Amino acid sequence: MNAILIKNTSRFFQETFGTTAEKTVLSPGRINIIGEHIDYNDGYVLPAAIDKIICFAFEKNNSNQSRIIAIDLNDEFEINLADPIELTDNMWTNYLRGVLKQLKLKGFKVEGFNCVFSSTIPVGSGLSSSAALECGFLFGLNELFNLNIKPVDIALMGQSAEHWVGINCGIMDQFSSVMGLENKVIKIDCRTLEYEYHNADFNDYSLILFDSNVKHTLMTSAYNERREQCEEGIAIVKNNFPEVTSFRDCTEQHIIELKDVMSAAVYKRSLYVVKEINRVILACDALDKGDIETLGKLMFETHEGLSTDYEVSCAELDMIVDTLKKEEAVIGSRLMGGGFGGCTINLIKKGHEDRIKKQLSALYFETFGIELKIYDVKIGNGTSLYKNN
Ligand code: GLA
Questions:
Q1: 67 falls within a domain
Q2: pTM over 0.90
Q3: pLDDT tens digits for 237-254?
């Protein structure tokens, strides 16, 4: 599928500009095995890049004017890099404007260029198409203009672009899009940005994503609100226990003792965060030992916490996880990413995938009148130049 994507992107470039692209970049979406909503709470996360990607093609055009075309949207914009960069009503363009703004703020010299891109990452499914967009675009400009930006800084600048657009996200999505490695999950320490690769070996189980195909609520405001509640929570903890510097140093007992001085929401969010930070450590050990049953159990617990305490689930996601919990062949299932819709990530015993896909799709459609989407993902490499260049 990606070979076709690359071919079509290159052909489109050639037909539009009459030249062969100078640089072709592939930038992946991501999954997250466990560690949700804790990247901005100094926790560990366990994501991986996937084989759903955005393909970009670039060339310099020796002018001040840059032209950027989203092939799939049949839409484009032009930007004069000498002009101030502002947010617009056209959302997809803002992620790219945000990247250009970051480059300007940091004093990098970028001249006019042409860029086209096309994608196999579903949008709004919690697979971080926006991180792939920011990081792939920045990676390409870095190559085109020899800016010498280091990979981790590409991720950080991508994150800043996302903040500028309005989501006060953590670093997980951009980091995994840039730093992913085939068949490896990345354990990221979001406090220090240290990271290590672990084998993504799930033994007898297949990793499958079920996409609820819904998107509820104003994700941006709900996300930012969760983040503020966590900031309030940790501030209260620090006031009462000066030895604690972040949620990483907190025990459940710390939070429980502060129940009366926290609002109900802040209490629940804080308790979830402390538990989830511990779950990731246990889950990573279980993965290393090949104890996929324990990993799966922890995933179910994460879902429970996200649904009850963090309150970022919805009826559709709960239904998927509740249904799969009753299946002996499913040992782990939880909502993945920001929540309020998008995907669940599931570990299904090999040999049972087709039956479960069929049964769940039918039940899901019967319950909500919505088509369930299914992705069999492979763990792939992070953002990279396509080898033809
Ligand atoms: C979104 C954000 C990430 C992370 C997840 C939840 O994907 O972009 O930084 O917070 O939600 O884990």
A1: yes
A2: yes
A3: 999 999 999 999 999 999
